[in-house]
């Protein structure tokens, strides 16, 4: 069987892959120098913008779902795959599809690519100091983006696992590219070990799910496990045995959830985050906190809502408990931090808890299971989009301060609003947004949407835990913001920040301002049925 490829559907990851190859070739043949460094950065930035243009073009298709790498109708029916999964449109005909560009995919791809613009601009500042191979940096960064854009479009287990590893593997090298830096090497080793363990756990769970359902396609697995569709004849004995031994399915669900728990730094799989964030170059820390986290959540949502919706009674309580523990541990440990990057790391852990919470009620009775972005899941996606803008703005300003403050502790930010008014105001606004206080209303609206979904979903106890944690989070955000406006004795003028950093900070803060003024732009996009 020969499958046709719909190149328009796979254009965003394809463009990024071609840009990665071009960067590597240019780095090999162009002479080393500042012009080459700037040129490679611009090529990477151009690749991201072209990929983003294709995402916008796909979104302009009138809500039509595009797909490719599909199993044709005849084979899909022969394997029991007809039904809801057969409604995709693509070059391969209708049937079970491995790559789908729907509203869910496009929102995540747009989030990843806009965040990538900020990370590439931050990278230009990081690489300007020398000591890091430029070509390898941009090549690895673009490879990570290929995986992050592909993952939300993945609709089978094989593509899902490959895309997730494509997100993870280049980050190990990016973390360690700052040569002769002991902290970077240590961070890379910790990240590598944690990722290997999480991948092994997830693969074990994936193998159990495949063994039970007899298919790698998520929609097919969901139909079989929910009893809506019979299994293939060759796998019927296995499924009958699984019904007799429900622990097999339960173990698979738990292992898959645990594997993705590492990726999103959810408790109890969170301990790697602060050390890795602090040891890695700041652009890599920003990438981990937004792009890698978004990819992890995309994969987790796809598996739970598409493939395991019929097992919600098993995973919903687990997700709810993990969300409560994650937001609580993140906020309590953030209160003890003196390093700016470590505080943002623990804050990122706490934010993962907020994003994770609505997923626990995504498959409640009466919830719509047909649209990935309806109800509770849409609330999680909306929160993730708003969080990305706020967090990237904070990391961009932290990077400007790190150029003059070696230790980059909270004390170094005292009086920042007087030394550098633009940087001080930008960081203060991002912190206020993360806290959910006026005028940073974007964070407040995001929390309200999540809180509403928890109450409507019958998880009142989780809503109370979230409310308490929101109050706890106010402490360290407000204390840090207060230091920015605390006068200090006159000091030597700070070194002028690299222009790309200003652009990165300005873009992220501008998005945070837009979301604060018109939050409905995100809420309508993420919660409207596809």
TrEMBL record:
GO cellular component terms, A-Z: endomembrane system; plasma membrane
Enzyme class label: translocase
Database matches in Pfam families: Proton_antipo_M (PF00361)
Keywords: Cell membrane, Membrane, NAD, Quinone, Translocase, Transmembrane, Transmembrane helix, Transport
E.C. code: 7.1.1.-
One annotated GO molecular function: NADH dehydrogenase (quinone) (non-electrogenic) activity
Catalytic activity as recorded in UniProt: a quinone + NADH + 5 H(+)(in) = a quinol + NAD(+) + 4 H(+)(out)
Membrane disposition: Multi-pass membrane protein
Transmembrane segments: 6-26, 38-57, 104-122, 134-151, 157-177, 189-210, 247-272, 284-309, 315-334, 341-361, 381-401, 422-446, 458-479, 500-522
All residue ranges annotated as the NADH:quinone oxidoreductase/Mrp antiporter transmembrane domain in the record: 154-473
UniProt GO BP: ATP synthesis coupled electron transport
Subcellular location: Cell membrane; Endomembrane system; Membrane
UniProt signal peptide: none
Subunit structure: NDH-1 is composed of 14 different subunits. Subunits NuoA, H, J, K, L, M, N constitute the membrane sector of the complex.
Record-linked PANTHER family: NADH DEHYDROGENASE
Family: Belongs to the complex I subunit 2 family.
Protein function: NDH-1 shuttles electrons from NADH, via FMN and iron-sulfur (Fe-S) centers, to quinones in the respiratory chain. The immediate electron acceptor for the enzyme in this species is believed to be a menaquinone. Couples the redox reaction to proton translocation (for every two electrons transferred, four hydrogen ions are translocated across the cytoplasmic membrane), and thus conserves the redox energy in a proton gradient.
Protein name per UniProt: NADH-quinone oxidoreductase subunit N
Gene name of this polypeptide: nuoN
């Amino acid at each position: 069987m020969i499958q046709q490829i719909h190149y328009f559907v796979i254009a965003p990851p394809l463009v990024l892959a071609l840009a990665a190859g071009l960067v590597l070739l240019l780095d090999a043949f162009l002479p080393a120098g500042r012009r080459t460094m700037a040129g490679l950065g611009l090529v990477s930035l151009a690749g991201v913008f072209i990929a983003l243009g294709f995402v916008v073009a796909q979104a302009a298709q009138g809500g039509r779902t595009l797909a490719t790498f599909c199993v044709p109708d005849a084979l899909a029916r022969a394997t029991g795959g007809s039904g809801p999964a057969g409604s995709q449109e693509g070059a391969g005909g209708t049937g079970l599809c491995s790559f789908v560009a729907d509203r869910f995919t496009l929102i995540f791809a747009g989030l990843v690519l806009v965040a990538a613009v900020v990370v590439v601009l931050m990278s230009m500042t990081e690489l300007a100091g020398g000591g890091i191979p430029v070509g390898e940096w941009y090549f690895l960064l673009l490879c990570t983006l290929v995986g992050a854009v592909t993952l939300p479009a993945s609709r089978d287990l094989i593509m899902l696992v490959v895309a997730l590893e494509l997100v993870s593997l280049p980050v190990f090298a990016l973390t360690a590219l700052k040569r002769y830096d002991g902290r970077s090497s240590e961070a890379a080793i910790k990240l590598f070990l944690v990722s290997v363990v999480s991948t092994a756990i997830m693969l074990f769970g994936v193998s159990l799910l495949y063994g039970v359902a007899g298919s790698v396609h998520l929609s097919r697995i969901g139909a079989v496990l929910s009893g809506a569709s019979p299994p293939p004849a060759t796998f019927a004995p296995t499924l009958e045995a699984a019904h007799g031994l429900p622990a097999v399915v339960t173990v698979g669900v738990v292992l898959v959830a645990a594997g993705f728990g590492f990726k999103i730094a959810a408790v109890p799989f969170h301990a790697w985050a602060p050390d890795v964030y602090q040891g890695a170059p700041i652009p890599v820390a920003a990438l981990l906190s937004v792009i890698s986290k978004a990819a992890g959540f995309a994969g987790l949502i796809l598996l739970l809502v598409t493939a395991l919706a019929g097992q919600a009674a098993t995973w919903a309580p687990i997700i709810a408990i993990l969300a409560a523990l994650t937001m609580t541990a993140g906020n309590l440990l953030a209160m003890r931090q003196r390093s700016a990057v470590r505080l943002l790391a623990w804050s990122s852990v706490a934010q993962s808890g907020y994003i994770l919470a609505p997923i626990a009620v995504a498959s409640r009775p009466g919830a719509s299971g047909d649209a990935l972005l309806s109800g509770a899941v849409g609330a999680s996606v909306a929160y993730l989009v708003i969080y990305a803008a706020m967090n990237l703005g904070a990391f961009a300003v932290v990077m400007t301060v790190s150029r003059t403050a070696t230790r980059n502790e909270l004390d170094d930010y005292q009086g920042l609003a007087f030394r550098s008014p633009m940087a001080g105001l930008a960081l203060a606004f991002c912190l206020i947004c993360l806290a959910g206080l006026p005028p940073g209303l974007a964070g407040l609206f995001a929390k309200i949407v999540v809180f509403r979904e928890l109450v409507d979903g019958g998880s009142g106890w989780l809503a109370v835990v979230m409310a308490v944690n929101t109050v706890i989070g106010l402490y360290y955000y407000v204390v840090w913001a207060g230091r920015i406006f605390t006068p200090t004795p006159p000091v030597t003028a700070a070194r002028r920040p690299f222009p790309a950093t200003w652009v990165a900070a300005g873009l992220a803060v501008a998005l945070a301002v837009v979301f604060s003024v018109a939050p409905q732009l995100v809420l309508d996009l993420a919660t409207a049925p596809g």
